[in-house]
Amino acid sequence: MSKSILITGCSTGGIGASLALALSQKKENHHIFATARNTSKIPKELHNLPNVTIFPLDVSSSSSVAEAVKIVRGSGHGLDVLINNAGLPFSMPLLDANLEDAQRVYEVNFWGVVRMIQRFADMIIERQGRIVNVSSIGGMVHLPWNSIYASSKAALTNLSETLRHELSPFGVSVICLQVGGVDTNFDARTTEFNLPPNSYYVTIKDDIAGWATGSIKPRDIFVMAKVFTAAEVAKHNTPESCWVILYGKVYDVTDFMSSHPGGVKVILRLAGTDATEEYDPIHPPGTLEDNLKPEALLGNVDPKTLPKPIANAQEQSSEEDQGPPPMETLFNLDEIEQVATKQVSRKAWGYYYSAGDDLISKNFNREVYRSIFLRPRVFIDVGKCDLSTTIMGHKVGLPIYISPAAMARLAHPAGEAGIAAACRQFGAMQMISNNASMSPEQIVENAAPDQVFGWQLYVQIERKKSEAMIARIEKLKAIKCIILTLDAPVPGKREDDMRTDNTARKLPVPSGKVAEEKAESLPDGTPVPKDGGGGVGVQLFAGTAYDLTWKETLQWLTKITNLPIILKGLQTHEDAYIASLYAPQVRGIILSNHGGRALDTAPPAVHTLLEIRKYCPEVFDKIEVLVDGGIRRGTDVVKALCLGARAVGIGRPALWGLGAGGIEGVHRTLEILADETKTCMQLLGVEKVSDLGPEYINSRIVEQQIYDGPSGLAKALRARL
């Protein structure tokens, strides 16, 4: 049987709007009066339905309610059901509550309901209808900061129970809905939260604000009321009870240690201390929520009890106090690195600068370009010089891209998003590290419409994690390809990074370092390693698969993504040849020895380029060949392009630029390389990148150093078949 139903508070995203939509679609063809103070906020779907009447209604206004009565009576539908749903949120410690604001809450949540019932009672009684009052379990559960709102709902609940007895003789039923946690935008209406500066609760104002605006979940409200001193937290520094402070909050990570991707030791080193400075630069937002159970959050730390960090000599130096020089006064990438070295932390420097073993591959990556000489041509008009090219079919402004480089926020808070901002100004491609310190969504958020990104993939032992990440990446249109990294199935030995592993020894609050050295295992049996730490690099490799194969891995990857695949880390002509046999599934390769950070004495990309030219030049026609490692000058860029590279990547230089001057530093890095590349091409007598070729260089010295054995192509072909 069709009913006439009036619902208050029908703004989009709330309970009222959802009720109106659901009831309007019932087969009984109910007539719905959907109301809100501002009708433009009522869902558009309701505006177009013939059985829905929309009009403005402010339940706190007697005149507005009186006008609503006229509209309903005049419609001829009468009224069978009145749903009092309109309500106002209000979260504030009672001692700080403004009485006018508190009274406004009661005007809507309680007196508004009374006003509606009194004015519509005649129509409801005439139909022996029903009144539904939407209350809240907040009126029964005693939550801090909620006294005004909770008491208004408690009053509404009691009113409803009493009214049920008063109206039952007239055949009118009264229902009170005790609504629990519902995913609506109810709290989003609290856009500002201002706690008086003299409030007793000022130390946890951000937490109260989070509750007021809905960004903190209900359970957290109990936790935030608990405040610990730093000394209390410091007592929990053993494998049996391990607490850490992050962003002013106290977490119990005892149960999480054994499953920590970076291993047990890194947590124990910071046990009982404020680990924010160590944690923040190397963890993207959401990491805590994704990995810790809600009950791991114990409360807040009193900031007044936190010890002040002990400044080291470098931080106290007058030179550093002066800050970096203007970026325009730096004229090459070496100068930018020197400035960055003075600006970044010892931990950041150790991670960025470090390379495998004796740094032979790292240094040779750069030195090899000095053994290639240029062959300039004359009597050529070089007034115009175009640096643009294409990568994977996408036009880019430079033949220079940013290689996947992890943990950019170790250098500067702008992080990978800062690198993206600089790339935007040059139309340069950025390959985002699998271990970026920001989420991919954050990095591409402000990208230009035609800006090009790639996503680096380290396949995880748990393949479902990689599959979930790729599904997430495919939703970001700015990311055009997947870069599958192959040259580091295990981390190399990076001693400069390893030396920064003992930072916890210098912290002002005693950490779990002593406990770590004494303990042989965690309570769950997980052994505590006794060998030397591996630094940031080893932590990042935790969970990375080392069982990848040509047939199985590529078959798996092509099933879960439609994005073009680039294989990164090829170091021989044989592997380049095999990769070309997998075209078009494989669209490109990056010749790289991981910046010398994996296998020391592995060949530079230039050697592999020359090997391909010697043994299997057809590779250049089947797939795109990119290179990275050792690029520090525009002449290096041009030499690699002459040997057949589509584009060249820079990793450390982008990080050093970020460390030296944030976004401006990365911009200056790209500006220097772009200017030098253009100058080199003009002096060579070349107008376009596509015109560069081996005739512009003399690589005889380097050719004497490359592999000179059997081609191995027949064996590679058999392996493919």
Automatic annotation (TrEMBL):
**Pfam families this protein is in?**
adh_short (PF00106), Cyt-b5 (PF00173), FMN_dh (PF01070)
Query: What does the record list as coiled-coil region(s)?
Result: none
* Top-level division of the source organism's lineage: Eukaryota
Cofactor(s) the protein needs: heme b; FMN
Q: Which UniProt keywords apply?
A: Flavoprotein, FMN, Heme, Iron, Metal-binding, Mitochondrion, NADP, Oxidoreductase
Residues in domain FMN hydroxy acid dehydrogenase? Answer: 325-702
What is catalyzed by this enzyme? (S)-lactate + 2 Fe(III)-[cytochrome c] = 2 Fe(II)-[cytochrome c] + pyruvate + 2 H(+)
**Where in the sequence does UniProt note compositional bias of the Basic and acidic residues kind?**
493-504
Gene Ontology CC annotations of this record: mitochondrial intermembrane space
The protein's matches in InterPro entries, at most eight in alphabetical order, are given as: Aldolase_TIM (IPR013785), Cyt_B5-like_heme/steroid-bd (IPR001199), Cyt_B5-like_heme/steroid_sf (IPR036400), Cyt_B5_heme-BS (IPR018506), FMN-dep_DH (IPR000262), FMN_HAD (IPR037396), L-MDH/L-LDH_FMN-bd (IPR037458), NAD(P)-bd_dom_sf (IPR036291)
Q: Which residues form the Cytochrome b5 heme-binding domain?
A: 225-302
**Which GO molecular function entries does the Swiss-Prot or TrEMBL record give?**
heme binding; L-lactate dehydrogenase (cytochrome) activity; metal ion binding
Q: Where in the cell is it found?
A: Mitochondrion intermembrane space
Is Mitochondrion included in the keywords of this UniProt record?
yes
Question: Which PANTHER family has this protein been placed in?
Answer: CYTOCHROME B2, PUTATIVE (AFU_ORTHOLOGUE AFUA_1G07200)-RELATED, S -2-HYDROXY-ACID OXIDASE-RELATED
What binding partners and quaternary form does the record give?
Homotetramer.
Q: What is this protein called?
A: L-lactate dehydrogenase (cytochrome)
